[in-house]
Specification:
The structure holds two protein chains of two kinds. Chain A contains 14 helices and two strands. By secondary structure, chain A is mainly α. In chain A, strands 1-2 form a two-stranded antiparallel sheet. The model of chain A has no long low-confidence stretch (mean pLDDT 88). Chain B is an alpha/beta fold. Chain B is 32% helix and 27% strand. In chain B, helix 14 runs parallel beside helix 15. Chain B is globular. The relative contact order of chain B is 0.10. The model of chain B has no long low-confidence stretch (mean pLDDT 88). The chains are: A mainly alpha, B alpha/beta. The interface between A and B is medium-sized, with 25 and 28 residues.
Chain lengths: 342, 502
Amino acid sequence: MLRLQAVGEVIKMMTSALRSRKSLYFYVVVIAIAFAYSVNSVSTVAVAASSITFGLPLAMAAMVGIMCERTGVVNIGIEGTLLTSAFFGFFVAALSQNLIWGLLAAIASGAVTGLLLALLTVSWKMDQIIAGTIVNILATGLTSFFYKQGYSLPAIFPRWSIPGLSDIPFLGRVFFQSGPITYFGLILIFVLYVAMYHTAWGLRTRAIGEYPSSAETSGISVKKFKYINVVIAGAFGGLTGAYLALELVGSFDRGFSAGKGFTALAIMIFGRWNPIGALLAAIFFGFAQALANQLMIDGLVAIPGPFINMLPYVLTIVVLAFSAGKVRGPAAAGQPYEREQA
Amino acid sequence: MTTLLQVKNVTKSFGSVIANNDISFEVAAGEIVALLGENGAGKSTLVKSVFGLVRPDQGEIFIDGNQMAPGDTAAVIASGVGMVHQHFKLVPVMSVTENIILGDEPKNGLFVNIKKAEQKVRELSEKFGLEVDPTANIEDLPVGTQQRVEILKALSKDVRLLIFDEPTAVLTPQETDELILVIKNLARLGVGVIVITHKLREVMALADRVVVLRDGKVVGTTTPKETNEAGLAQLMVGRSVVLEVEKGVAKPGKPVLTVKGLEVFDDRNLLAVKGVNLEVRSGEIFGIAGVEGNGQRELVEAICGMRLRAKGEVLVSGAATKDMHPHAVHEAGVSHIPEDREKHGLVSSYSISDNLILNQFDQAPFARGWFRNMIEIRKNADLLVKKFDIRTTSPAALASSLSGGNKQKVVIARELSQDLQVLIAAQPTRGVDVGSIEFIHKQLIAARDNGAGVLLVSAELDEIISLSDRIAVMSAGKIVAIIDSKGADRDYIGRLMAGLDK
């Protein structure tokens, strides 16, 4: 009897999950991938794997924005964080000939840009857009000025094939043959999601981003929370910079981050300030880029290269145009918090 | 009775303004203390010092005999002090439960145990008789219920001293009565209560002891038994206040505002005004009494051209006015003191002088062609600030820097300083201190005596009775009776408002 009931429950859950609109999207995607895989497995795997590769840095950079805006700090300095941390990651790794030192330097320098932003916006109550611009200009100027040609990395972070899992057709190649920062970044995105919606830290963070004096009157130090979150977000941005310089590309150049920090803000909005939403949005961006690349490689369409490279920026504009006015971000983002007016 | 809170010689100044000057008072367990004072008397600053949201410059605060470190909100909360804020400290997009547990979340390992929290909220709301759905989002709840959540949030922290900051400012009369019962019940359970207010009727109904503040100082401590409303008002304002409004006999003339068969929908697309006919004559005050939410707001907005008139028409001095054209209605000679002054009366980020010409900025003498005439604008501001007793450091100060009463004076100064045939005053004294109320009442009567027809809408029945020459009672979107204010019976009108007597 009991077992029958349990089976009934499971069937009920599955049918209700089947009926929900969100799961419909999921099935459409799965069926589309299965179909594509049956037609051309090599290209499908390549596109799917590149979607993750291109999408991940955008998703991770979007986490920086989400963590900051959820605590009420608009961070348009993500670009500067990526650039700074990629710079330090690359040159420390190149000079020490040690990737781990490079990774740590990238994370630390990212955290420092977060600290700078927190100092400007939380303690000095500077306009947050101007503060973010300062971070960007400083990053561009310093990394360009100190940039030297002729250095190279000992290696890049190698791919780790996870035994067993990496042999699964399609999924294995897409998810389980990646570099260490990829795994770590993906895990952190899920950790951030759970933390944001299921822990006291997340509840407090969201309250501060919506209505800081509600938190202050509940005995929470808004200032401390903002500092902690903006600095952690900076460190996360540093990890993203390390991914770009030490795992994905393996080099550094002036203007290396190429606007990814700004695209990340669009992804944050597209994903409605939700870590999983932003991850899906970023994979969608990555997919568009990967698909265009693949079509070009396969010679199916003759799109000139520059147009392919334009794709992320065009998508950003389209996404923002369609989501503008429809989504609502944290209400207190962008406003300096004055305690005595509480 | 044991002393819960001791405030000793607290002084706090903001710049050159002394908000609290050497204030001392005590609260015992189970006692309801009213802090009475006009807007700007320093009541809010004082309780914020107690709560640790403001650091006093001098003085000491003891809870249960323990001295509190200044500015340490967490420690104050930990010693059992809760606060129900005037502007609710609730996150609109979060649930009732999430708001209540914020800062003290029940945990299950690393995670918030939301099921347990909801259970706790249910228990609390049963214990104190404050009904609320723990899973509802704050933004979907009416204001009275939001306040219930705010009270529950305070009670959830095991409070022994609860501070209410202007709790009735946003409540309807019914919600106010409910709140008074809730507060009395809390006191019976042994909670010490501080209520900040400037409403004398509530103080008389509620308080065990009254501490009166004026200009940042304690000017008297008394009990409701030893005094009456007039006595409290005098203490609060520092001179005798005429609570009864003095006015001469009305000399009504021709109809200036005629409303015929008006039907209006509200924001939810329900019919809120159901065929209203009324006529306001020049030289009279026509009051509309009614419980809030019975179509008064929609009626006023439709007359002023701010809301679509589904049916019917509005005539000013016999001429039909354009629908949905507030500016055209204003040009026709209708001045409007709106119900929500922050939203429709002022631009708080503009200066006082700009707010004083908000509806004439493009007209001479305030404009010359494409340019503003700053000299005339300033002259106008200087004149009106003086004439309407707007308390400010400078006409160039932002409207947001003013207290509620002075903001309302800015609106009234602007609306009354132009040619008008009709004045529509919606809740003109809401959230305004006693001194300003007296002043505003005088201005309304002066407008009447100058020949304007005044349409007064107010949720305060006393205000309607004492000011109006004729009273219309509105209930469920209809005018159920029009009576002469002379000898009007408060109970009879109350029954009409409730829709009982037809």
